[in-house]
Amino acid sequence: MASLHINQIEKKFAPSKTGQQAPFALGPIDLTIREGEFFSLLGPSGCGKTTLLKLVAGLTEADAGNILFGDNDLTKVAPEARRFSMIFQQPLLFPHMTIEENAAFGLKMQKIGKKERLLEARRMLAMTGLSGFEHRYPDELSGGQQQRVALARALVAKPRLLLMDEPFSALDPGLREEMRELLGTIQHELGVTVLFVTHDRQEAFELSDRIGIMGGGRLLQVGTPVDLYERPESTTVASFLGLKNIVEGTVHSRNFESHDGQISINTGQELADGRYCLIFRPETLMPATFGNQATVPSVQFTGKVSKLKFNQGTYVALVQAGDEMLECMVTRDQAENMEVGQLIKIFVKQSDLQFVEY
Ligand code: ATP
User: Where does the ABC transporter domain start and stop, copy by copy (predicted)?
Assistant: First the structure.
């Protein structure tokens, strides 16, 4: 086993003759996926996730750059010789084969004897929760069960890398969550390296060790889910992650001022003067309704409670600070002691302030 190295990979697509399809350029992209890692490519539709996955799989030829597995250059190696498995949105099972024959297919291609490959297929079907279904045919299974077979079939071949392109997006939300949990457990148990493509933030955050955020054919930022949530490096990444409370303003002599001047705080860090977005994570905003004072270096501003929302165990106060409507997570006690229309002070630790260049 070894890491996958993507070096300076580039791919261009010309516009379609009718002009309906614009030209597209991917890369250059550099990325290393470590052995045993669950890595997701996350980004909006059309940003190039599938193209990058296909380059890794060998299904698309790169214009420049190379792909290595350990020291082994795979750039010119045929897809079937890469020893990778791929799972798509549709399970793509063979309709005339039973479930266990489907699951054993990869091993048949590897010329493994019938007894051994069926044994291995049954073991993997048991892992994916399909014991008892071995002799059925694909059309006798639900969509979710068929995708479990696709997973078993991919894993039976003991791939060096498992490539997954939006594998759960055709399933309904409950089933999606179930499949997500199953995949997480199996990946952990087998230690298989996964490269997973999705545009679903929650899916990427729940499953991944690291995530690469893509936009416009580029890899914008790579990090753990916590890194990305707490330290987005650009407003594009922050907006794509759906981060709340992004306030535009300017920094002058270490002081940030929102554009209407309502929020004016010391940045607590060396920043060149200029335009910035300040991101307040909702759980870092502390309302001072009981006269509680922050015990660490912090800044404060004033706002008016505009709404209190209860959502299955958590409370959110919407606080209007000038033109900005900020979401603030509050405790039950705080929520019960707040009133709509009340002016409150909000404290934030300086270390929780996240500035991003505009
Ligand atoms: P989605 O989430 O919608 O699947 P994506 O991020 O996976 O999107 P890609 O499928 O990689 O995006 O496509 C990126 C761009 O490249 C799109 O504009 C697409 O139309 C274009 N494209 C992809 N494959 C080809 C091709 N074979 N020929 C021409 N253009 C292509």
Answer: 4-241
Ligand 1 atom at minimum distance from 217 CA: 14
CATH architecture of the domain with residue range 4-239: 3-Layer(aba) Sandwich (3.40)
Fold designation for 244-357: OB fold (Dihydrolipoamide Acetyltransferase, E2P) (2.40.50)
pLDDT tens profile 89-108: 999 999 999 999 999 998 88
Closest residue to atom 15 of ligand 1, CA basis: 46
Residue 256 structure tokens:
């940030």
The residue nearest atom 1 of ligand 1, judged by CA position, is: 45
Pocket of ligand 1 (CB under 6 A): 13, 21, 24, 43, 45-51, 199
How far apart (Å, rounded) are the C-alpha atoms in residues 304 and 193?
Answer: 49
The string of pLDDT tens digits covering residues 13-56 is 988 777 777 889 998 999 999 999 999 999 999 999 999 999 99
3-state secondary structure of 58: coil
Q: Where are the domains of the chain?
A: 4-239, 244-357
The answer to whether 267 and 319 have CB atoms below 8 angstroms apart is no
Is the bond preceding residue 28 a cis peptide, omega within 30 degrees? yes
Angle between helix 114-127 and 99-109 (nearest 10): 120
d(CA 198, CA 187): 17
